[in-house]
Write a structure and sequence with these properties.
Number of strands of chain A: 0
CATH architecture of chain A: Orthogonal Bundle
Structural class of chain A: mainly alpha
Number of strands of chain B: 2
Oligomer: heterodimer
Largest sheet of chain B: 2 strands, antiparallel
CATH topology of chain A: Helix Hairpins
Distance between the termini of chain A: 55 Å
Strand content of chain B: under 5%
């Protein structure tokens, strides 16, 4: 059996990669992909922990809810990014800097 | 371990105690159906939404007057407490005022898609806030925070037809998604460390007490990122100024009040758990974020030219001010917090109504455009001055009473702890600083003269009536604060 630590290492690496992508990428879609990585890290965590929670399947239930909600959030975010692209013809968050102060 | 029969009885028993939430869901579905099947249903939808809020209020009042004792429903997913119902009533006050405001907002009215979809999203957001206040479980907490977030992304972007508006919307949604992903990682760690996701009960605090300070701090700080995004305290405030400035004014009024009440309600309900953590972790988080929010919000607001952007920074400052209360034990928070929240709702929605009215009538977008308008529209200007005085916290307005209540409940704790007294000094100093920017608006309205006589365009009578009503209410509450009692 794969020990718990391996899952936790993988999920921590996934989370950090996602955060790195969010901070460095220059494209809103790529940032969304980074967010997706971060969410998947926590799903992996929950399912791995749930293996050791013999009472009920709390972690697995939680993971199912997260998968559904992540899809909903991505749908909303994509619509909003599309709307920006229609107006500005660019989805680079570094270029959208008209709001300051 | 419960068997299935016990669970079913519990669910059946719980269903009848959720009347306010059922009403909101029903109203939400009705609005969608009306929009689909009936043409020109604008007025009808408004009536249905108002009725929904009214019936919900009635159910809540019935619940609070016949209140027995706090209990957990649906197998420990949903908590019913007297304080929770009070916060729900406050959310309803903010929502009802915003609902009337939505129909006065020209940007929403000019939307080619009509306003009906928007109202259905709005009702869903209110339902999310109710669930957030009552959540007794990290799963419920996550679901309801996401529900509010998704609804507010859509509301902010609903009529984003210009570059800047679309840009603010994108920043909001990306920042929000990152915050909720970080919070989710924190929740997964909490589950792993303690083996439980129940916010009430002892499982979580027992688990944390075996864990040691570092692990607890990591998990709780990650959880607070999501909460901080919704409350917009420093350092999770980056979205606030942009979004408040570019969203339709009525939406700004809504998202600056109602979600905050809900999150503060949740924080209040789980304070015993958070304060039981080892090493005063929660008080340290509160001390840092509250003082940082007050300092940053109130100083940057001085340099703002746009009134909505100024209100955004002022909102950050007010959040910090309310957060101060959470260093106290739970039973000392409620009165001051609910009173402050109520007054904050009135002041904020009133100011945004007046700002919207000035923009509608004279096209005045910047604070410098307000020059000399005081004589042309005396009633709105005087009300706006009252709101600004109340936001500063000066007598004879209710803003003074609200600030006074918070200071007086903290002063006892300050005599025993050095950090709390420093926090109080920061609060007092930033209140003085806030005079400089709040009073810029009266200065421009009444004392400076305009070079050109501005022409009056259109005006909304309901909006003006609402402004006057709220202003009177703030004055009356300032003189007789006993009219409102929170227990």
């Amino acid at each position: 059996m794969i020990p718990l630590q391996h899952f936790l290492f993988i999920s921590a690496i996934l989370f950090c990669l996602g955060l790195f992508a969010v901070i460095t990428r220059k494209n809103a879609i790529q940032i969304l992909m980074g967010i997706e990585l971060m969410i998947n890290a926590s799903i992996l965590n929950l399912v791995a922990f749930s293996r050791f929670d013999k009472v009920d399947n709390t972690g697995q239930m939680f993971a199912l809810f997260i998968i559904v909600l992540a899809a909903a959030a991505v749908a909303v975010a994509l619509v909003i990014i599309m709307n920006l692209y229609k107006r500005v013809k660019s989805i680079d968050p570094n270029q959208s800097d008209t709001l300051r102060g | 371990m419960q068997n299935i029969q016990q669970s079913t009885t519990d669910i059946l028993h719980s269903v009848s105690l959720l009347k306010p939430e059922w009403t909101l869901s029903l109203g939400f579905l009705l609005v969608i159906l009306l929009d689909l099947f009936i043409k020109k249903s604008r007025v009808l939808v408004l009536t249905v939404a108002l009725l929904t809020l009214l019936v919900t209020t009635a159910f809540l009042i019935i619940q609070i007057t016949h209140f027995g004792e706090s209990q957990l429903l649906f197998n420990g997913m949903f908590s019913l407490s007297k304080a929770g119902i009070q916060f729900k009533l406050l959310v309803l006050v903010a929502s009802a005022l915003s609902l009337i405001f939505f129909y006065q907002d020209h940007r929403l009215a000019e939307n080619p898609k009509g306003i009906n979809d928007f109202i259905s999203i709005f009702l869903a957001a209110v339902l999310g806030m109710f669930l957030l206040i009552s959540s007794a479980n990290l799963l419920m907490l996550y679901l309801s925070i996401e529900m509010i977030s998704l609804a507010s992304y859509l509301m902010v972007n609903y009529s984003a037809y210009q570059n800047k508006q679309a840009e603010a919307g994108m920043k909001y949604v990306l920042f929000g998604a990152v915050a909720s992903a970080i919070m989710l990682y924190g929740i997964s760690l909490i589950y792993g460390f303690t083996g439980s996701i129940d916010l009430y009960g002892t499982a979580l605090s027992d688990g944390f007490s075996h864990l040691g300070t570092n692990g607890t701090a990591l998990a709780i700080i990650l959880l607070m990122v999501g909460v901080g995004f919704k409350l917009s305290f420093v350092p999770f405030h980056f979205w606030t100024p942009d979004v408040y400035q570019e969203a339709p004014t009525s939406v700004t009024a809504f998202i600056s009040t109602a979600p905050k009440i809900a999150v503060f309600g949740l924080l209040f309900c789980i304070t015993p758990l958070l304060q039981s953590l080892s090493g005063d972790l929660f008080s340290q988080i509160i001390l840092i974020t509250a003082s940082a929010s007050m300092i940053l919000g109130n100083t940057i607001a001085i340099f703002q030219e746009n009134p909505k952007r100024m209100m955004a920074y002022s909102a950050i400052g007010h959040t910090g001010f309310m957060l101060m209360l959470f260093v106290l034990p739970q039973d000392q928070i409620l009165t001051a917090l609910s009173f402050y929240l109520l007054i904050y709702v009135l002041m904020n929605i009133g100011s945004f109504l007046a700002i919207n009215q000035l923009e509608l009538q004279f096209g005045a977008v910047q604070i410098s455009d307000y020059k000399g308008l005081g004589k042309q529209i005396p009633f709105i200007s005087v009300s706006l001055v009252i709101f600004m005085v109340a936001l500063t916290g000066l007598p004879p307005t209710a803003g003074f009473i609200a600030k006074f209540l918070i200071f007086s409940s903290l002063i006892q704790a300050a005599s025993t702890s050095l950090w709390i007294s420093i926090l109080l000094i920061v609060a007092a100093l930033t209140t003085v600083i806030s005079l400089f920017y709040y009073l810029k608006i009266p200065l421009n309205l009444f004392l400076k003269k305009s070079a050109v006589e501005l022409e009056e365009k259109q005006k909304s009578k309901i909006g003006i009536a609402l402004i006057l009503l709220i202003a009177t209410f703030i004055l009356v509450l300032g003189i007789w604060p006993v009219l409102i009692k929170f227990t």
